[in-house]
Structure formats: C-alpha cells, structure tokens
Amino acid sequence: MIEVTGASKVFQSGNAEVRAVDDVHLGIKPGEFALIVGRSGSGKSTLLGMLAGLIRPSSGAIRIRGMDLGSLSDDGMSKLRSREIGFVFQFSGLLPTLTALENVMVPTLFSRGEAGTRARALELIRTVGLSERANTYPGTLSSGEMKRIAIARALINRPSLLVADEPTGDLDVDTEDEIMRLFRQLNREGMTIVMVTHNPDLVEYATRMFRMDRGRLEEWTDLHPGTPLRGSLPI
Amino acid sequence: MSDAPGLRLSRMVGQNLRNRPFRSLATIFAFAIIASTFFSSQYLMSGAQQSLDAGISRMGADILVVPTEYSHTGQSVILTGEPSTFFLEGSSVDTISRIPGVAKASPQIYLATLHASCCAAPVQMIAVDPERDFTVSTWLKENPGITLGKDDMIIGSAVVQDIGKDLQFFGHTYYVVGQLQQTGMGVDNSVFVRSEDAYVMADESGEKAVKRLTIPEGMVSLVLVKVDPQTSPASVAAEIERQVPTTKTILPNGLLNAVSGQLYAVTRLLYGSAIAVTVVSVPLLGLLAAMVTHERRREVSILRALGAKNSFVAGLMLAESFSLAIVGGILGIGMAVGILVSYQDLISQVLKIPFLIPSPLTILAQGGDALLLLIGIAGVSSLYPIYRIIRSEPYETIRKGES
After folding, report:
1. For each successive 10 residues of chain A (235 residues), what is the average pLDDT?
2. Nearest to B305 among A81, A113, A115 (CB)
3. Strand pairing of B172-179 and B152-155?
4. Domains of chain A as residue ranges with CATH
C-alpha cells in the first residue's frame, strides 16, 4: 500500500536548513492500522503530509499503491488524494458555510460525479451516529461531532487509505475513545489507516507502531499480526 | 433518494459570498459604480446619435443655411428646440437654388411662440412653403390621407394635443392634422404650418394676440438644401457661403460635431470617472480579494488536501468574483437606466443635446458591454490572489492554522 524509500524533507528556515524528515524507510501493507508517535517537532506530521501527497519530499521516493508520488503532477496528486486517500485533520477542517451533510459531500466535487452521493453521505453520517445533525452547520456541533463528520467526509469517495493527523488531539477521553473505536472498526473492515499522534496510549487500537524522533523513524513494532478484517461500515 | 442532487459549486459560491457580507457589498458597490459610469457614457452618446439620426432623417436636408449671426441659434433650434425668431433675405433662396448641385432649396420661417395651452414652454413655429418644402411633404407622403391645407397644423411629438383638435397661436386657430414621431431633437417641440397662414396670423396678431407678431416681408429664417446625388454637400455648402456671404451653412456632420462637442465634457467626465474608478478599483478589489483569500487560505488548503485541483480552486474564486461583478453590474446598470430615463428631459436640457432613448436592443448590448468589462476587471483583480493561494503549500497552511 505505502512504500517509502529514503524519504527526506528539508525546510529552509532563514539561512538554516531544517531536516524535518530524515532518510525514512517505511512499508505499510493494505489493511494495516499504523500509528506514528513522537513528540512535537519530531517530524511525524511532515511525514504524514508526505504520505498523503500534500508535501513533496526533498529526496527519496514514496509510492502509494504502486504510484510514485514524485512522478505525479499537481493535478495527478490532487486526483490521487480525491480517489485514494481520506484525510482527517487535527481540527475538523469543516467548512463553516456548509451544513454537516454538505461538508461530507465536498470531496465528491473533485471526483467522478456519482449518482447517490447524497444518499451515501447520509448513510455515512448515520454510521458515525449523527443522523439528526446532518442539516446543521459546524458552528453548532461539538468538537467530537465535528470530528465524526470529518471522518464521514474522509470516507465519502471510498478511499483505500485513511490518513489522520492527531485526530484526537483536542478531544476529551470519552470522545477520543469513541473516535478511536470508529477507526478500529474501519480498519477491521479493511481500511488501511495511518495515524499520527503524540499519545502512545492509543497503541492498543493499532496493528503497528512507528516512533519518530528528530526526523528519523527510530523503531517500529508489529503489535497485532493477523488482525481479522471485517465489519459493517459502508466503505 | 439516490437521485437527489449532491453538493453543487454554486451552493459553495453563494454561501461563501453570503458569509462575507462586507467584502461582498463593498465589491458589489465598486462594480456598480464602474458599470453605471461606463454604461451612462455609452447610453448618452448613443441616445444623442440616435436622436440626430432620426432628426436629420426627418428634415431630409443635406445642408442647413442660416443667417451668419444666428448660426449658433439655428443649431440650438434644430438640436434642442429652443424657440427663436431670426431672418435672412428671401432672395437668398433663389440664389441658393441656382447653385450647381442644389437639387431642392426649401425656405422655412422660424417663429418663437408665446406659451400655448398645449405646452409647458413656448414652442417653435415653423412656417413652410408647400411648393418648395420637402420636410413636411416627405412625412405627408409617408402618411397618406393627411394634407397640410389652410390653417392646418402638424405638431411635434412633444406638443400635447389630439389630432382633429384646435390649437391657438397669436390668436389664430389651427387645426391639428398630424403628429410627427419622436426624434429627441428640436422638431419634437415644433409645430408646422403653411407660410401663407403664418403671414395671416401675423397680420391678425395686432388685434387678436397679446403680443404683436411681425414677419418682415420677403424674409425667411433658414433654407434647407438637398443636393444632387453624387454631389458633395461640403462643396455645395462652401459655394453657398461664397455666393451668399450673409449665411452660414450647417452640415449634419456639423450638427454631430456640435453635439459631440456638447457631450464631450460630460462623456469625458463619465469615461474619466469610469477609468478612474476602474484604476482605483482593480487594486482595491485585488487587495480585498487578497485579504479574503488570506483569511480563507486554510479553508482553501483543506479543499486542496481533500483533492481539489488548482483549476477547481481558481474556478471557485473566479466564480465568486464574477458573481459579484454580475450582481454589481446589473445593479449599476439598472440604477443608471432608471436615472437616465427618469431625467431624460432634464439631462437633454442641461447638456443641450438632442436625446432619444436608445432601443431596448441597444441598451441590452451596452449593458452586455458593461458586464463584459466588469467580468474582465473581476478576472484581473482575482489573478494575483489565485496565484498566491495556488503556490502555497496546503499542508503547511493547515498546520499553521492548527497551531
């Protein structure tokens, strides 16, 4: 699913070079739930941005389902993101001017138009338990509700990879647990998930864990080999 | 339910504009000002041009010959119908008729009337010689069944009286037999009678009218000249001025130039305002767009992260900008049409120009021109903000917003 070979990302900060990601090698198979943990500034979010095709590596190669991201144009990257990758941000990233239902449908504007978009969006909202909030605006939703709508949005185009950047960072323990159980359910249904967090306690939900420190992927752990993949989410 | 429509771009555009009322209203206002000034300039020019075309076609003359000292007055009478009385020697008509290239020469006597019941202001009475006339006679030919007989009168479009009713001037009663179509020129405020009836009216005015009217024997006010086909009106006009030195000739082009001259200051002001507003607005609109884009950079970055191509982002921003331009344009043009139509007579009087409301098709075309200009401005002012946002790193922007 994901193959990273010697990927580095160097940012220019004044006259100094900051090596946010340094020679990372990584392989993630379909159906895995990979957790990348690390302290703030360790480079985990930059690596996640690179895996999602949002940041181009300074060197090295990244392949998603065999496609070399380095060879894709901006439009090619956009196409890949809209069709293969669902993204969940630390903050919900919902558009305040659209209702929850409309927010879920936003990614469909960038992909092939499909009949039944609204029905699928409603079904996803039902799945994340917010049917009654479908026509409300984000301003009236709680943080947890917004996050669940954002997850529904990430799933609307039936991506093969779900990328989440600290999705529980601003949530209370109960809501964090709710979101993580939703992720685990998605993973059990076959969704490949890569999630960045600074909270190592979430390791129980993942099948593999990576740790980043000063731009380097220091170690990895295969937590639950052979996790069964089945469930009921409409992915 | 599966056939229910998904999210549409138009919904995003509408919501984005509604949620930024200050930006939207300020931009609409700027576009409305540009549209109204640009449209007004075009409207006034074409209204004057159309009026001149209609008026000159109504007169059917290639050259107007007026007394030298009354050339300006003659022009004003023809263009805006400011009533006036002036004369030149009637013998000039014969001299003019004999000049090579002159096909017809029709003398007319211009008499400024007192207030009449028909009209809010004095009207211009024009006495024609039916034997030589080709202005009223052409109209009569186009309207068979109407003749200009004894004490008959044909009235301009702005003169209020029904056909078949009487009108009194200087105590003399005339019978209205016809009404000319609107031209926007002086002829609209004129009434046409036969010369011999005018002389009778003048003779009787001492007894019947409040003010005595005098028409000097053997004098005319101006001569309308039609030249032979393939003859240059300019060369005939020059010859007329040479042979009758007390006269000044006016060509339709001269009238057009006079109108253009009178309109010049106004159109220069309007076009100048439109250009100034445009020059000031483009960077201001660009700045406004840049500010909004800066404020929305995270939102746009999220769209890009969700798979929006650069072309989608550019399309979204252009659609918003074009929507504001179209709304502002329609408002500006609507306001301009409202004001220009409502105050048409006042504008014509103040600017001393003939004016005829352009046809709906012309107004639509001018409105279309103004809208195209606005769409161009909207596009240009959006270019830099679009470039900036497309060049930015979406993920970096999202992360900055989160911290």
Report:
1. 88 83 89 88 87 87 87 85 86 87 90 74 87 91 88 87 85 81 86 87 84 81 50 38
2. A81
3. parallel
4. 2-221 (3.40.50.300)
